[in-house]
Amino acid sequence: MLSEEEGESAYYKSYEKEVSIKGRTYRAVVIHSDFYDRRRKKKIDRETQKDLERAKKIKRKLTGTDYFCKKDALVAAEKRGATKYHRLKTGVEEKKIYKRGRPKNGKKEVAAVRYILSCDITADDKLIEVLKEKAGCFVLITNVAASQHCAMDILKIYKEQHGIEKNFGFLKDLLIVNDLFLKKTERIEALGFILVMSLLIWRLAERCIRKYIKEKDITITGWDKKQTDRPTTFMMSTKFCSVHILKKGGMRWLSREITSVQRQYLDALGLSEEIFYTAAD
To answer: What is the extent of the structural domain holding 206?
Structure first.
């Protein structure tokens, strides 16, 4: 199945087929982006140019040495090395060293023979062409049926994950990862499940607040008491740091009244202040 779509900043093409991974069948959607293609091709051009400079450096080293015998020159030619995008073709040439002084009978006499390497640099056009063909392509694997979402729908869903990835990035922080000491597989899986569920609730709260603001066409108090129409869950959580709950027996109550800013966020979430003191023991 082939399809094309013009995006805001790129032109996409897609191709998909079924693949089997560990006995399970998935849809492999190959996406090609012209915008990503141009960016990757520029990177390949830069890498190719750097690779050429490395090849020239190797050539200068090879051709700048004289060898006393042809065997040594051939051994050096075999150890010439290689670069990623270029190939070095070497050959052995004789270098005659003539005696000093005026030649007899007008003909110079050879005092010694040395051997030097010749070196030609050629680009690996086939490899470079393959890399450029692959530039701009990436694969998305899904178990969602084509009847539910086409290839471009899968791409849109994938691109909308950046919000979750951004919030979930804290798990990659060394300060977090280095403090996790779990040996058993089931405990690691349980922690992963808790973190994923926490993130879903975190993102759901943010979505509900923004949806409420959009429907009401209003703003809400954000950082530094400035109004915003794109509050975050972290922003909301800082507004409730001053909430303290007092408890005596089976009774609960707030130590102080809810502020107007806190009430804004509660209204946006469809909640009341009762959630703080009607929680189950």
So the answer is: 185-276
